[in-house]
Each structure stands twice: as structure tokens, then as C-alpha cells.
Specification:
The protein has helices at about 40-45, 70-75, 90-100, 105-115, 135-145, 165-175, 190-195, 215-220, 260-275, 290-300; strands spanning about 1-10, 15-25, 30-35, 55-60, 65, 75-80, 150-155, 180-185, 200-205, 205-210, 225-230, 245-250, 255-260, 280-285. By secondary structure, the chain is α/β, with parallel strands linked by helices. The protein folds into 2 domains: about 1-210, Rossmann fold; about 220-290, Alpha-Beta Plaits (2-Layer Sandwich), CATH 3.30.70.100. Strands 6-7-8-3-9-10 form a 6-stranded mixed β-sheet, with helices on both faces. A 4-stranded antiparallel β-sheet has the order 2-1-4-5, covered by helices on one side. The protein has a 4-stranded antiparallel β-sheet with strand order 12-13-11-14, with helices on one face. The protein is elongated. The relative contact order is 0.13.
Length: about 300
């Protein structure tokens, strides 16, 4: 559905996006994660055919960037961080204006459908400028969906929203998941990405890594058993001598043991600890957050990561 090869954008001496290779499947909710200034918005603008790349190529919804830009724009919807609505027009008139630009076949029907979906129908005749931030964001999302795009680009859709409005927008995004619609979500909200996305990419001018969040965390950190011991004896970790142990370390009084398969190997590990005289209080698996992965990659050696 979205494929980019060597996609690059330079602004004078500044390289905002550097040699991006990316593939997004049809029907995915794909999270594009990175800090402010990482080049996420520039990437969206290129993929939506709003600005031209300096180098590289991309195909979106079957149309090649820079060759079929008009057709490509008809297949995508874009929600920017700032809604960009006409504040002196009503919600209804905003949608009618953009429906005309997209040549929507049944504009009244489409506008009613999304105003009702986003619970704005009763406010359809009110000026967009009178809406709260959350309501404006919902109206902008309705505008992006009017022409039923195959690809929906969402650039920081919950930025600057209060928690209640952000929750509403996230729920709307979840309701839009479909095997026939691909959602490309740019965000630096890691909790949001973990909840909504099938796959993620971590990006800071260059692509650092991409994949299923759970698989990425396991690949980078492995699976670790946390053992809480009463009065732990120094050096007990060196006496374990079990072939499946990959690494041991003490962290805040807890023994962290890296294993290939904790489900299968934990019983033997606990038996060995008891044989060595350890007083085992309880055992759990260390949970690594997306934030841990994000910070380690952003602050670490990008090429190695």
C-alpha cells in the first residue's frame, strides 16, 4: 500500500529525511515515531504528494509519487497537527467545500455520515471557530475521510488536546481500522502508538528500526526473569551453571536472568536456586516498555540499532 525507496528531502543544507526505505501493508495501522523535528511531517507531506522529494521514490495506493500526483491525492486523506479549517464557515459548509474539491459523488450523504459518526451532527450549522480543540480535530478528521481514502495520514492527531478529547480521537481512530484502509500515524505519544498500531517505525531523519512492537522489544532485550530473593548471597548468580542462561545481573536488589524461553526454563532455574540455598520470594517476567525501546534507540548508536 505504501512503499518508499531511498526517499530523501533536503531544505538547502538541511537533510530532513535521509534515504527512507519503508513498506506498509494494506489495512495496517502503522506508527511513525520520533521526536519533534525528526522529519515525520516532511515524510507525510512527501507521501501525500504535497511536496516533492529531493531524491528517491515512493508508491502510495498504487500510484507513483511525482508521476501520478493528482491520482495519488485522490486516494489519500491527511489530518495535520493543526486542523486548518475555515473558522468563519459552519461545520457543514467546511465539509461541502472540501467535498467539492475532492469531487465527492454524494457530498450531503458523506457529510451527514461522518458528522454523525463523530457526534457533530447537532452542531453542523455552528461556525467551526466556535468549536473546542477536540471538536475541531474531529471535524478535520471527518474532512479527511469524506472521499473514503484508501490511505489516511494522521500527523500528531492528539497533540495539544486535553486528555478527554485525546481519548475521543484515539477511539475514533480505532473505529476506523479496516482491512481496506491503511492508517499512517505520526506521533511521539508512545502510549498512543502501543495501543493503536499493528507495526511501528522509529525514525530520526533516518529509519532506526521497524516492526511489531512486541517483537522489537524481544529482539532487542530478549526475555528476562526477575527473581526476588530474601537476603541474597553475593555471587550466587555465578554458581547457577545452567546452559540456557544467557546473562545475569543485579538491579536494585533483584536478580535479572536472561533466558531463551522462560516458560520452559523457569522451573529448572528455581530448583537450582533452591538447591543453592536461595530463599525465593517470587518470580516474574521483566516487562520492557515501548518507552525503553524508544529512548535506547534515540539516544544510542543509530547504525548499530
Amino acid at each position: 500500500m505504501i512503499t518508499a525507496t531511498g526517499l530523501t528531502r533536503r531544505f538547502g543544507d538541511l537533510t530532513a529525511v535521509d534515504q527512507l526505505d519503508l513498506h506498509v501493508e494494506r489495512g495496517e495501522v502503522f506508527g511513525f515515531l520520533g521526536p519533534n523535528g525528526a522529519g515525520k511531517t516532511t515524510t507525510v507531506r512527501m507521501l501525500a504528494a504535497l511536496i516533492a522529494p529531493s531524491a528517491g521514490s515512493a508508491t502510495v495506493a498504487g500510484h507513483t509519487l511525482s508521476r501520478n500526483n493528482s491520482e495519488l491525492r485522490q486516494r489519500v486523506g491527511v489530518l495535520t497537527e493543526t486542523p486548518g479549517l475555515y473558522k468563519r464557515l459552519s461545520a457543514w459548509d467546511n465539509l461541502m467545500f472540501f467535498a467539492n474539491l475532492y469531487q465527492v459523488a454524494k457530498p450531503d450523504q458523506q457529510a451527514e455520515k461522518y458528522l454523525k459518526l463523530f457526534e457533530l451532527w447537532d452542531r453542523r450549522d455552528d461556525l467551526a471557530g466556535s468549536f473546542s480543540k477536540g471538536m475541531r480535530q474531529k471535524l478535520a478528521l471527518a474532512r479527511a475521510l469524506l472521499h473514503e481514502p484508501e490511505v489516511l495520514f494522521l500527523d500528531e492527531p492528539t497533540a495539544a488536546l486535553d486528555p478527554e478529547a485525546a481519548k475521543t480521537v484515539r477511539e475514533l481512530i480505532e473505529s476506523l481500522k479496516s482491512k481496506d484502509r491503511t492508517i499512517f500515524l505520526c506521533t511521539h505519544n508512545l502510549d498512543e502508538a502501543d495501543r493503536l498500531c499493528d507495526r511501528i517505525a522509529l525514525f530520526k531523519t533516518r529509519l532506526l528500526t521497524a516492526g511489531d512492537p512486541k517483537a522489537l522489544k524481544q529482539t532487542m532485550y530478549g526475555r528476562r526473569t526477575v527473581v526476588h530473593l530474601e537476603n541474597p548471597r553475593p555471587g550466587i548468580e555465578d554458581e547457577l551453571n545452567l546452559p540456557f542462561i544467557r546473562k545475569t545481573e543485579w538491579v536494585n536488589g533483584r536478580l535479572l536472568i536472561s533466558l531463551s524461553n522462560p516458560t520452559r526454563e523457569n522451573p529448572a532455574l528455581i530448583r537450582r536456586l533452591v538447591e543453592l540455598g536461595a530463599e525465593v520470594q517470587f518470580v516474574s517476567e521483566l516487562k520492557v516498555s515501548l518507552e525503553d525501546l524508544y529512548l535506547d534507540l534515540m539516544e544510542g548508536d543509530h547504525d548499530t540499532a
